[in-house]
Amino acid sequence: MAAPTRGRRTRNPNKPGRALVLILVAMIALTGGMFLSGNTKPRLGIDLAGGTSITLEAKNSAGQKNAVNQTNMNTAVDIISRRVNGLGVSEAEVQTQGSNHIIVNIPRGTNSKEAREQVGTTAQLFFRPVLTLDAGKPTPQQSASPSSSSSASPNASKSPAGDKGSGEKATSSSSPSASSSPSSQGRAISQALKSDPSPSSSAGKSGDKASSPASPSASATSGDGATDAQAAALQAKFEKLDCENPKVRSNTATTAAMKTKPSDPVVVCGKDSQDQWEKYILGPAAVAGTDVKKAQAQYDTQGAAGWQVTMQFTGNGSKKFGDITGELAKKQQPQNQFAIVLDGEVVSDPRVSEALTGGSAEITGNFTQESAQSLSNMLSYGALPLSFKEDNVTTVSPALGGEQLHAGLIAGAIGLALVVLYLVFYYRGLSLIAITSLLVSAVLTYTIMSLLGPAIGFALNLPAVCGAIVAIGITADSFIVFFERIRDGIREGRTLRPAVERAWPRARRTILVSDFVSFLAAAVLFIVTVGKVQGFAFTLGLTTLLDVVVVFLFTKPLMTILARKKFFASGHSWSGLDPKRLGVQPPLRRSRRTSAPVEPKEA
């Protein structure tokens, strides 16, 4: 006799309470992070907040092949970001799109014409000798300038062969020979301007300060035509300059980069190692950025220099750089420094102790990896074999952006209302689970978008809003698949709890396949498109991933818990699981078997 088989006991290996606690903790953490960071609203794109969007297309310069690559594009983005920030713009976006486009989004409140001029022009990189420097504020009108002081700086230079520079840069208000009065400082500047920055003769004197001019032959070869009147004008502009004012600083940089010849002296601004603004008077350009063949950030593993920036010059640039460093090495600070000027702003002012004639040089100091990489990118951009063509410019007024946002929100509200009405009408009590899941998905989406703004520069544009609206239908579709599988189980005669556990594996496969297709479409769209369409693809992909999270960690656990409640388990008419409404036939009763008629026996 066969042993009786035990019926399998339906077990739920999952812990629905744990999943609900997990997603609740995630929601609290994201919401708390949003409020603590102060980013309580998603960043709005140009089409919603208003502003100017400029699309630049990169081209290879004449005679250059394969110059449009990821490294050069990233360097260009860094430089354009500096330009935009120089305009005093907040929350501007500069990023690559595709392989050969750069998108510059500048929010409202910025002069669009000025922005286009700054963004679309080729970078100007020059090495200029420092004549004098001071703190960034306007110089007080006094008979004597402040006493000098010195502090450490991350900008110092040494030769590639290991010849060390001073390792520090003085932040004195003026050179020693010019510290007595503004008039003596003006005379020193005049003398320095008459000196040739790249002398051809080695018979010159030591050239200490401007008070000891270079040799007569060097002075005679100077093509500057600098006069005492020019020096006085530079000195007056220098004293009035306020580098701490963003607008003044931007105008100064624009004048130096676009309205001043390389052969003319300039007054510019720059930051020191303590991130404080300084102002400079610089001599004529001695070396151009196009003379830099290569620049890169490296870590000195042999000595104690740490992070450093190495430069390699072209053949002509090597001679120019050797001449200027040889002349500067004879002088005292600050006139033994050369300023690296990018777009009319000093990005570094290393000190020189001797001529660097090897065709390469190193800039060392208290660099971090980030600061060394930033400086090397700027130096590389001076010789960047790229040119940019203005491909498209879109200007959106704040009023138009507000109208678009308002229309998008109305469309989203209408779509959500229609989905909710359908769920309530068709699924009744089950609609509460779906609506609650939609609210959880909305909270996660909103908080993540708010945090992604400052984290990765994500901005919510109108196509992104459309992606969020489409996501409502995708999320609701996942609930419908799960609910219909449960109903199929009830139609088959199962009670609710077994129906939920049996329906989940089948619904899970369908939901994953459907969401994978949606995510794959969003990923392909994000990769192959340029511009605002990427906002739609990004939002669609994000909400698709969140749909999986919500269904697995909230909808299914909540359904498992509610299946134990009498309202749903008993098939209440308003539960959405009423057997009669689902067309379930009552089980057929078996009739008693009647015995076959017995034929009467014959007597």
Task: Please tell me the total number of domains.
Answer: 3
Helix run count = 16
The backbone outline, from C-alpha atoms, is elongated
Terminal residue distance: 43 Å
Summarize the structure.
The protein is of the alpha+beta class and 603 residues long. It has helices at residues 16-37, 46-49, 70-86, 112-120, 182-193, 216-220, 228-240, 246-258, 315-328, 369-381, 398-427, 430-456, 462-491, 496-528, 533-562, 566-569; strands at residues 51-60, 93-97, 101-107, 125-135, 150-151, 156-158, 169-170, 266-271, 277-282, 287-288, 292-300, 306-313, 338-342, 345-348, 360-367, 386-396.
Describe the fold and architecture.
The chain is of the alpha+beta class. The protein folds into three domains: 203 residues, Multidrug efflux transporter AcrB transmembrane domain (Multidrug efflux transporter AcrB transmembrane fold), CATH 1.20.1640; 68 residues, 2-Layer Sandwich (Alpha-Beta Plaits); 249 residues, no CATH class. The protein contains 16 helices and 16 strands. The protein has a five-stranded mixed beta barrel, surrounded by five helices. Strands 2-3-1-16 form a four-stranded antiparallel beta sheet. α1 packs across α15, α11 packs parallel to α13 and α13 runs antiparallel to α14. It is elongated and about 105 Å long. It starts with 15 loop residues before the first helix and ends in a 34-residue tail after the last helix. The N terminus is likely disordered.
